[in-house]
Amino acid sequence: MRTMLGRTLREVSAALKQGQITPTELCQKCLSLIKKTKFLNAYITVSEEVALKQAEESEKRYKNGQSLGDLDGIPVAVKDNFSTSGIETTCASNMLKGYIPPYNATVVQKLLDQGALLMGKTNLDEFAMGSGSTDGVFGPVKNPWSYSKQYREKRKQNPHSKNEDSDWLITGGSSGGSAAAVSAFTCYAALGSDTGGSTRNPAAHCGLVGFKPSYGLVSRHGLIPLVNSMDVPGILTRCVDDAAIVLGALAGPDPKDSTTVHDPINKPFMLPSLADVSKLCIGIPKEYLVPELSSEVQSLWSKAADLFESEGAKVLEVSLPHTSYSIVCYHVLCTSEVASNMARFDGLQYGHRCDIDVSTEAMYAATRREGFNDVVRGRILSGNFFLLKENYENYFVKAQKVRRLIANDFVNAFNSGVDVLLTPTTLSEAVPYLEFIKEDNRTRSAQDDIFTQAVNMAGLPAVSIPVALSNQGLPIGLQFIGRAFCDQQLLTVAKWFEKQVQFPVIQLQELMDDCSAVLENEKLASVSLKQ
Amino acid sequence: MAAPMLRWVGRGRRWTFARVDGGSCHRRGAPTGSTSNRIREQSSVAQQPLYTTQKPRKGEHKWAAVVGLEIHAQISSNSKLFSGSQVRFSAPPNSLVSFFDASLPGTLPVLNRRCVEAAVMTGLALNCHINKKSLFDRKHYFYADLPAGYQITQQRLPIAVNGSLTYGVCAGKKQSQVIPKTVRIKQIQLEQDSGKSLHDDLRSQTLIDLNRAEGQLRVDANISVHHPGEPLGVRTEVKNLNSIRFLAKAIDYEIQRQIDELENGGEILNETRSFHHQLGYTMSMRDKEGKQDYRFMPEPNLPPLVLYDATSLPAGADPQQVINIDQIRETLPELPSVTRERLVQQYGMLLEHSFTLLNEVGLLEFFQNVIKETRAEPKKVTSWVLNTFLGYLKQQNLAVSESPVTPSALAELLDLLDSRAISSAAAKQVFEELWKREGKTPGQIVSEKQLELMEDRGALEQLCHSVMEAHPQVVMDLKEGNPRAINKLIGLVRKATQSRADPAMIKEILEKLSS
């Protein structure tokens, strides 16, 4: 009973079905942990009443033997850029403080339709623009691993370690709140969004599975956009099977999103356990070996490749020659769409409005200056510059062409017989906040998205899998990239890999005394890729 | 927003807003918004009538004017171009606004099938090339009645291009001669209509209605003048013309203004102008922001619009998911030019009459229904429908559908006339009775009012005799050879018969009796 919070979604779902715990009990445990971990700043809004009411209804269904399925009674959290009916949706921006949408995003509605309990809305970088979850109006999110036994013990060994309180780590971003929420056991799955790596990056830093589905597989209706042509709802869970369960609930065409595809996709996403990988071909993109890559990540990456090879898979070096143009290309396309998407925030209909009323134009200007942070305003400015008639051909059109080349790189790699690509997710493990803020948002985003962004340009599915702890005791993730709409194949490979590496569970005993009991039965598995 | 619009050519705009309390409320020309569904069509009418200022003096250059029209026409559809909310004329403000229409964050456009079909049909009717693949773009500008900050339109690759429309212009002394003209259609594009701004100058407020099902037709005219054989002149754009009459006036005014300006050594600025319809002149809108850069970009939430024809239709395609151009072509009604030609051929009517029949909504159908039910000659029917019937309608400002006289009633009336059961004059009387909507048939009216033609020659002779007896002086005049006397007698007899007698027969009898 006490170990419920440490379980995976699938395990706790089984416990609910077997009556080992009720949805209300589970909900209350999560709510209590949310309160205890408030300092992590993972949640912007905790929807306690809503969750308890949903738990009550779920409980009735279980009693009547009418469970809605694997997600019935499961606590989940949703990034605060998905519209939630009746629940404030802020995008961590002054602009939308107090904005209560009158409708649910399709993915939120689907979770609720499956009986999931909505615990709250999670923190992010303002309008998802960032890679640290440090640039939202509600303050930065703290990485639960900052308080883990694994990290703290390593730090004690380091005589140079500084003041503990100011030394907390970032979660990565922009879906850092969702990652922290799942990582700290306050829910079993969370929705993030992924435009350039915003789900996979914090997943890697928080030791989670972070899945970005194929573009068009999951509806974006209700997701407040960053870059419409690259955004996808992302899924953060503790294991690959859990991600597949959530994907099964979310995937499918939506009449409200014309970019979702109608071709039938295998549902539900039940993942087979691969017995052997000898028929697999794993591609290693040589351009991803960049000088900035930490030696630890590089070493784990090559060990992972060795693992596949030793188990009989074919491992090939492949080339994605246009990779190095991805960042600059993304910058043009992202800021252009941002400039356009942010135009609706003018203070007239919803959200923030300034007090200035000398003229409409003055009102617009002041509202937008007060409502958006520097990062958002900077991107709006750049984007409008790129879209000017005189610049459009030179920037936007060229960037679109480069985007096509980048997408074709992947097509060529897959056409050469590769099933999935294996890459790092991030350059290194999570860094302390004080370290992180030394660089500006733009520089950091450019560095941090390097392995993840091209996937969004190409619309491919990708997943970050936690692999091992670094020398500092912090999680490191690796990324698998699949063919478009071969999400199930991708996750199947990821599941096999996950089983091989036996990533350790986060140990938060020192932090939350009753969590120690919660977690005590979870054995710290050996890390097969440990260096 | 609102109703779907088709836009023929050009660009548009809309009066703008300032919904700010206490401050200045300026109305400036905003770029066109459209959020209803509409078609926008650009026609470049390169008209070449030559203009001169007053009398051309010797050696003076003649001027030619070039006019291009951008026509914003609302599509007749049940719901909006990109949302499921209804389109209904004069609905209460903001009563038909979906989350998308209000541009709530996270909402996405979903293209309305009916609007695409209407655009294809319009393209076919205007002899356009239909693009099998067309794209949507965002056009950005800040305006209170444009809540998304951009308008979705088809700037780069519109649904139809390169069409033409042939029409007739009345000319000649009695405007009875129809000269055929052709206007080229540059493109037809689907475009969202913006909302409507209502300015309350008194309170310095602007109210916004996002229903957007307003103006059904709006035209912007681009006008320039040049000397034939020389490069085209700088053009001006006169915006927001909402009637054909004002359009014509504005263009005429603007052409003359440009000629005057140039002949007086001035220059024409590339600017937008508005038309003061009461005073009949155009004036610069002096948009203080100068030229707008709309920062066009592809609409990422709408995939390319792909249309099929019989040869490209994928096998087993769900008819609900695809639009087949050939299928739409089959449902295309007979086009007006073909109808007119048929009317001329079939009924021997004058071309200008065929124009009148088609220009009045429902009139052609009325005419055809009368033809179907009457034995009367088509020429007779044409004359009655276009003169008597249309005259009554116009006089009382009624639509054909509101007419108190049904096609069957008119047909019966014309049959009575055709069989010489009543005189023309009596027929007019019957028609007037029919117009009173008392539910009587022409036959009933004729018998009640005893309007039948007097076929009894003996009785008519008797009547003529009595009239002559009662007016000896007139008879005397007649006998003395006064030519007007016979007409006077005929008139008196007709009056006595209540117009039921054939004037020719009366004349014959009178002449016989007086000889």
UniProtKB/TrEMBL annotation, chain A:
Q: Which UniProt keywords apply?
A: ATP-binding, Ligase, Mitochondrion, Nucleotide-binding, Protein biosynthesis
Q: Name one GO cellular component term.
A: glutamyl-tRNA(Gln) amidotransferase complex
User: What top-level class of enzyme does the UniProt entry assign?
Assistant: ligase
Pfam families according to UniProt: Amidase
Subcellular location, in the record's words?
Answer: Mitochondrion
Stated EC number for the protein is 6.3.5.7
Q: Where is the active site?
A: K79 (charge relay system), S174 (charge relay system), S198 (acyl-ester intermediate)
One Gene Ontology BP term is:
glutaminyl-tRNAGln biosynthesis via transamidation
Q: Does the keyword Protein biosynthesis apply?
A: yes
GO molecular function terms attached to this record: ATP binding; glutaminyl-tRNA synthase (glutamine-hydrolyzing) activity
Residue ranges constituting the Amidase domain according to the UniProt record: 28-491
Q: What is the protein's known function?
A: Allows the formation of correctly charged Gln-tRNA(Gln) through the transamidation of misacylated Glu-tRNA(Gln) in the mitochondria. The reaction takes place in the presence of glutamine and ATP through an activated gamma-phospho-Glu-tRNA(Gln).
| Subunit field text | Subunit of the heterotrimeric GatCAB amidotransferase (AdT) complex, composed of A (QRSL1), B (GATB) and C (GATC) subunits.
Similarity comment: Belongs to the amidase family. GatA subfamily.
Q: What is this protein called?
A: Glutamyl-tRNA(Gln) amidotransferase subunit A, mitochondrial
Q: From which organism does this entry originate?
A: Piliocolobus tephrosceles (Ugandan red Colobus)
Q: What is the lineage of its organism?
A: Eukaryota, Metazoa, Chordata, Craniata, Vertebrata
Which gene is annotated as encoding this protein in its UniProt record? QRSL1
TrEMBL record, chain B:
Instruction: Show the GO cellular component annotation of the record.
Output: glutamyl-tRNA(Gln) amidotransferase complex; mitochondrion
Q: Where in the cell is it found?
A: Mitochondrion
Locate the transmembrane regions by residue number.
none
Residue ranges under compositional bias (Polar residues)?
A: 32-45
Sorted alphabetically, the Gene Ontology BP terms of this entry are: glutaminyl-tRNAGln biosynthesis via transamidation; mitochondrial translation
User: Which residue ranges does the record annotate as region Disordered?
Assistant: 26-45
Say yes or no: keyword Signal present.
no
Entry annotated with the keyword Zinc: no
InterPro entries, A to Z: Asn/Gln-tRNA_amidoTrfase_suB/E (IPR017959), Asn/Gln-tRNA_Trfase_suB/E_cat (IPR006075), Asn/Gln_amidotransferase (IPR018027), Asn/Gln_tRNA_amidoTrase-B-like (IPR003789), GatB (IPR004413), GatB_Yqey_C_2 (IPR023168), Gln_synth/guanido_kin_cat_dom (IPR014746)
Q: Which residues form a coiled coil?
A: none
Instruction: For this UniProt record, give its keywords in alphabetical order, as a comma-separated list.
Output: ATP-binding, Ligase, Mitochondrion, Nucleotide-binding, Protein biosynthesis, Transit peptide
**Annotated Asn/Gln amidotransferase domain residues:** 365-513
Main localization of the protein described in the UniProt heading: mitochondrion
Identify which top EC class this enzyme belongs to.
ligase
The EC number(s) given in the record are: 6.3.5.-
- For this protein, what is any one GO molecular function term? glutaminyl-tRNA synthase (glutamine-hydrolyzing) activity
Q: Which reaction does it catalyse?
A: L-aspartyl-tRNA(Asn) + L-glutamine + ATP + H2O = L-asparaginyl-tRNA(Asn) + L-glutamate + ADP + phosphate + 2 H(+); L-glutamyl-tRNA(Gln) + L-glutamine + ATP + H2O = L-glutaminyl-tRNA(Gln) + L-glutamate + ADP + phosphate + H(+)
Q: Which PANTHER family match?
A: GLUTAMYL-TRNA GLN AMIDOTRANSFERASE SUBUNIT B MITOCHONDRIAL AND PROKARYOTIC PET112-RELATED (PTHR11659), GLUTAMYL-TRNA(GLN) AMIDOTRANSFERASE SUBUNIT B, MITOCHONDRIAL (PTHR11659:SF0)
Purpose of the protein: Allows the formation of correctly charged Gln-tRNA(Gln) through the transamidation of misacylated Glu-tRNA(Gln) in the mitochondria. The reaction takes place in the presence of glutamine and ATP through an activated gamma-phospho-Glu-tRNA(Gln).
Subunit-level organization? Subunit of the heterotrimeric GatCAB amidotransferase (AdT) complex, composed of A (QRSL1), B (GATB) and C (GATC) subunits.
**Family according to the record:** Belongs to the GatB/GatE family. GatB subfamily.
Write the protein's name: Glutamyl-tRNA(Gln) amidotransferase subunit B, mitochondrial
Organism listed in the record: Piliocolobus tephrosceles
